[in-house]
Write a structure and sequence with these properties.
The protein has helices at residues 35-58, 69-84, 110-116, and strands at residues 61-67, 125-132. With 136 residues, the chain is of the alpha+beta class. It has a two-stranded antiparallel sheet.
Length: 136
């Protein structure tokens, strides 16, 4: 899957891995600032996702959230486009794969990332009922 370099929607989710949320995933590292602020934003987003999943339990359903491939692809395209115009594109380092993909760094500010992860967005996911008749 990641032969050409790691990528994940919001740096947290990957299509084909339902209900898996990462903290400090691809393209969430910082060149300046505190990574703790990025991780706190991710933790808030994951908590909101878990609350969404728990909502299904109240309906007697166990659900799975799988990132829509088109959402992940659009996110990755944006990251690579923005990073292509950054200082990270001009250096030969572990930030880049042999093919030139930048898989580590976030191209924006911490405040932008916090804003973009402020609220869980269920439309980014395919929601599948994996079990019915579950007691909460």
């Amino acid at each position: 899957m990641w032969r050409n370099g790691a990528h994940a929607h919001l740096g947290m989710t990957v299509p084909g891995f339902p209900n898996l949320f990462w903290i400090y995933g691809p393209n969430t590292n910082l060149g300046g600032g505190s990574i703790v602020s990025m991780m706190e934003a991710q933790a808030r987003y994951v908590v909101d996702a878990v609350r969404h999943l728990a909502g299904g339990l109240h309906l007697g359903e166990r659900i799975a959230l799988d990132t829509r491939p088109e959402a992940a692809a659009a996110w990755d395209a944006e990251m690579q486009s923005r990073l292509g115009a950054s200082v990270w594109n001009d250096c030969a380092s572990w930030y880049r794969t042999d093919a030139g993909r930048i898989t580590t760094n976030w191209p924006g500010t911490v405040a932008e990332y916090q804003q973009r992860t402020w609220q869980f967005d269920p439309s980014v996911f395919v929601e599948t009922i994996v079990e019915q008749g579950v007691r909460a």
